[in-house]
Amino acid sequence: MDKIVFSCGDIAGIGPEIIARTIQKENLTKKHQVIITGPADVFIPEIKRYTESAKFYVTDSYDPSLNLHETIIINSIQSAPVKPGIHSPDTGRVALEAIYKAHDIVCSDISRSVLVTAPISKEAIKSAGSDFPGHTELLAFLSGIQNFSMMFLSSKMIGALLTIHEPLSFVPDMITPELLENKYILLNEVLHDKLGKNNPRIALLGLNPHAGENGNIGHEEQDIMIPFVNKYPNIEGPFPADGFFGNRTYEQFDLVLSPYHDQLLIPFKFFAFSEGVNFTAGLPYIRTSPDHGTAFSIAGKGIADPSSMISAVRWALKLLGKK
């Protein structure tokens, strides 16, 4: 039986609600072993709100040999005082502990497990002592992986980032031939092996306005990007990002590769906010998450949309089948 491991995210946000609603709407316990790393006192009442008949097995130490049919396993974590919508160092601690536990669980049975992470507050985990800006970097560190990429999946567009949570002023110096080579090799492999693209077409977006205008608005395209693109037949660009998205050129490609976060995420979330999924390429296991944040402003109100979390589970299982 496949295992779907959810990490709780920031429990002051909408993570517990969208996990509970996803389990109910997708009837996940029917075909999969569902495991949650998070406080039992938060998740049991939240899940029962949507599935009164839910059965639970709560443990402080997960046993990989457990195989409980139609039962939600909660690998419990010491809870924290929670006021919906208000994060704290305590909610940051819970989120971090949940990630560590979830990582260990998935690593105990990589071929049959997926990790689906609920949104965290970067401010909260920092206040709890973490130096990592997000899930992607932390999970790569735990896995001992140097070459990884943040990918975004939807039915409308698939994209990936050359840099992740970096100040914009740092990005130009980070765009190097080595970076492009490493990401290209990794993403080509993901497209072929996990997404079934035998001859993937990849579009590279420019760093500067108008993709540098032949070197008149920045030199990165002329010096680094164009020589790289000329090495491989299945990658094209660099394209000016505004026209590329404005005239829907992205529809002609299997992957859009962007130099920095907002250049890709603004159009991606505009096109696919309710179904978009974050996937960490390069990990030894499948990890997905919704493409939205903690939504503190609506936490505890029972109105959170679980669509992106549902998509995250569906994509994770699809990717697991491609391994």
Folded structure, characterized:
- The protein has 323 residues and is α/β, with parallel strands linked by helices.
- The chain folds into two domains: 1-145 and 283-323, 3-Layer(aba) Sandwich (Isopropylmalate Dehydrogenase); 147-280, 3-Layer(aba) Sandwich (Isopropylmalate Dehydrogenase), CATH 3.40.718.10.
- The chain contains eleven helices and twelve strands.
- A twelve-stranded mixed β-sheet has the order 3-4-2-1-5-12-11-6-7-10-8-9, with helices on both faces.
- α1 crosses α2.
What separation lies between the terminal Cα atoms?
A: 16 Å
Largest sheet: 12 strands, mixed
SSE-based structural type: alpha/beta
- Series of secondary-structure elements, N-terminal to C-terminal: EHEHEEHEHHEEHHEHEHEHEEH
Low-confidence stretches: none
